[in-house]
Write a structure and sequence with these properties.
With about 425 residues, this protein is α+β, with helices and mostly antiparallel strands. The protein folds into two domains: about 70 residues, no CATH class; about 350 residues, Neuraminidase, CATH 2.120.10. The chain is built from nine helices and 26 strands. A hairpin with a 2-residue loop joins strand 17 and strand 18.
C-alpha cells in the first residue's frame, strides 16, 4: 500500500479537529497530499506512532513501509546505552533490562525504557545476559554476553521484538542488513567448519538460509558492522582466527568486508604501523561519515588516531586526527589499566563529535576540532560485585552504547525465528 492513497483518509481527521476547535483555528481540507506527508514525515517517531493504531486512518498511513522509509531518512540520530548489571531482575518473560536514550532535541534529557528479553530458548542451560551491541534502521540488537548464537531485535517505538535462534552456540551472529533489491532484512551468522568459516545468510522474510563456505578470516562481533555503499565492514576477530589456524592474523587482512549485492567477501589492511606480535585489532573500530570509511585505533598508549579511506579500491588511507587522552583523564579521573594508560574507546560518530567510552564506565561526547567534551548520561557509579569481576576480566562492561534512530520500521516476520528449518539440518 502506498502513502499517497492513504493520505486521503487523513482529511477526515482534519474535519474532526475543525469541529472541535473551529472557533480558534482554521483547517484547510484541500491541503495537497504531498504537504501532509511532508509534515507527518518530520514528526518524531514516537509522536507519529501514538497518533493512532492500524485501525485508524492516520495509523494505517504511518504503518506503511513507504512512509516508514521516508521517515527513517529524515530522523535525527540519538545515543542508546545500557548500564550492564548481572543483578538485573528476572521476570516470567525473561531478564528485565533498561535502555537509556538521549533526546532528539533536548541535549541533556535522557529517556529510559524497559524490555524483557528471554535468551533461555537458545541455550536453556546457560544464563541469560542480554547485551546491547548494535542498532540498525530503528532496531536495537542484543546478544547474550556468554555466546553469540541468538539475536534479539527490538524496536523501542513500536515494541516489535524478534528473536532469531541458531541450533547451537557454534554459530555466532555478526550483523543485519537490508537487501535493497529483494526488499528484505537478512542476518549474518558465522561458524567454524574444518579450519574455515562458513557464512550463513538468513532471510527474515522467507525464513530461509544460504551458506557461503571456505572463507578464512572471521569478522569480529564486538559491535555491529559498519555499512558503506551496500558493503558491511568489520575488524577481524583475532581469537577466532587463532582458533582456526593456530596463530594470529596479519594486519594485511585485518579488515573484513561483505558486499550485500554480490555477496563477495574480501579483506584489506588497516592503516598505520603493524600491530606487532600482540594483535590488538579488538581495540580498533570502523565507522562511516559523509560516505567515507573511518578507522579508529584505540590501542595506542596516550592517544587515539583517526584515519580516513580516501581511495577504496587502492586502499589509500589519510591520517585525520590524533586525540590525546590527558584531558579525558582529568575530566573523568578514570583508572589506569595495566599498560599504564586509561581505557578510552571510540564508539560512534555523533555529528561532529565522537562518542567515547572512558574507563569502561563513562560516556563522553568529544569534539576533536574544538577540544570540548560533555558527559552522556550519569556519572559512573559503583556497580554490583559480579559486574566488577567481569570488568576485571577485560570484558567491556558495565556500559555499552550505540548510535540509534527512532523509526517506524517493521521486520514483518515472526516473533521467534530459527536459523535453520528442520529439513535444512538433515
Amino acid at each position: 500500500m502506498s502513502v499517497i492513497p492513504c493520505l486521503s483518509w487523513v482529511r477526515s481527521l482534519w474535519g474532526q479537529v475543525h469541529g472541535l476547535f473551529g472557533s480558534v483555528m482554521t483547517v484547510y481540507s484541500d491541503l495537497p497530499d504531498e504537504i501532509i506527508a511532508d509534515i507527518l514525515g518530520r514528526l518524531p517517531a514516537e509522536c507519529v506512532f501514538l497518533c493512532g493504531d492500524s485501525h485508524t486512518p492516520l495509523g494505517a498511513l504511518t504503518r506503511t513501509p513507504s512512509f516508514a522509509d521516508m521517515h527513517l531518512n529524515r530522523v535525527t540520530p540519538v545515543t542508546a546505552f545500557q548500564y550492564f548489571f548481572l543483578s538485573d531482575k528476572m521476570s516470567k518473560y525473561g531478564r528485565e533490562i533498561r535502555i537509556h536514550f538521549t533526546h532528539e532535541v533536548v541535549a541533556d534529557k535522557i529517556v529510559s525504557k524497559s524490555i524483557d528479553i528471554d535468551l533461555t530458548l537458545a541455550c536453556p542451560k546457560k544464563g541469560s545476559a542480554p547485551l546491547l551491541f548494535g542498532s540498525y534502521n530503528g532496531f536495537l540488537l542484543f546478544k547474550n554476553l556468554e555466546y553469540d548464537s541468538v539475536l534479539v531485535l527490538w524496536n523501542p517505538i513500536t515494541q516489535e521484538q524478534v528473536t532469531l535462534i541458531a541450533p547451537h552456540d557454534g554459530y555466532r551472529v555478526r550483523g543485519i542488513f537490508f537487501h535493497s533489491t529483494d526488499k528484505e532484512y537478512r542476518v549474518i551468522f558465522i561458524s567454524l567448519k574444518s579450519g574455515c568459516f562458513e557464512f550463513v545468510i538468513f532471510s527474515l522474510k522467507t525464513k530461509s538460509s544460504r551458506i557461503i563456505t571456505g572463507f578464512t578470516h572471521p569478522p569480529s562481533g564486538i559491535i555491529a558492522p559498519t555499512v558503506l555503499n551496500g558493503v558491511l565492514h568489520w575488524m577481524i576477530c583475532d581469537e577466532s582466527y587463532k582458533e582456526a589456524h593456530g596463530f594470529y592474523p596479519c594486519c594485511e587482512n585485518s579488515i573484513v568486508s561483505f558486499n550485500t549485492n554480490s555477496e563477495e567477501l574480501r579483506t584489506m589492511r588497516h592503516p598505520g604501523p603493524p600491530c606487532g606480535a600482540r594483535k590488538e585489532h579488538n581495540m580498533m573500530k570502523l565507522m562511516e561519515k559523509d560516505g567515507q570509511l573511518l578507522f579508529f585505533d584505540d590501542s595506542l598508549c596516550g592517544r587515539i588516531v583517526v584515519w580516513t579511506l580516501i581511495d577504496y579500491e587502492k586502499e589509500v588511507w589519510v591520517k585525520k586526527h590524533v586525540i590525546t587522552l590527558k584531558p579525558l583523564n582529568l575530566f573523568c579521573r578514570a583508572r589506569r589499566c595495566n599498560c599504564n594508560h586509561m581505557i578510552v574507546e571510540v564508539w560512534y560518530i555523533f555529528g561532529e563529535e565522537l562518542l567515547l567510552r572512558v574507563g569502561c564506565k563513562d560516556l563522553l561526547l568529544y569534539d576533536p576540532e574544538l577540544c570540548t567534551m560533555r558527559r552522556v548520561g550519569e556519572k559512573s557509579k559503583k556497580t554490583d560485585l559480579e559486574s566488577v569481576l567481569f570488568s576485571l576480566k577485560n570484558i567491556h562492561l558495565p556500559v555499552t552504547a550505540v548510535l540509534h534512530v527512532n523509526s517506524l520500521v517493521s521486520l514483518h516476520t515472526d516473533k521467534i525465528v530459527y536459523l535453520f528449518k528442520d529439513d535444512e539440518l538433515t
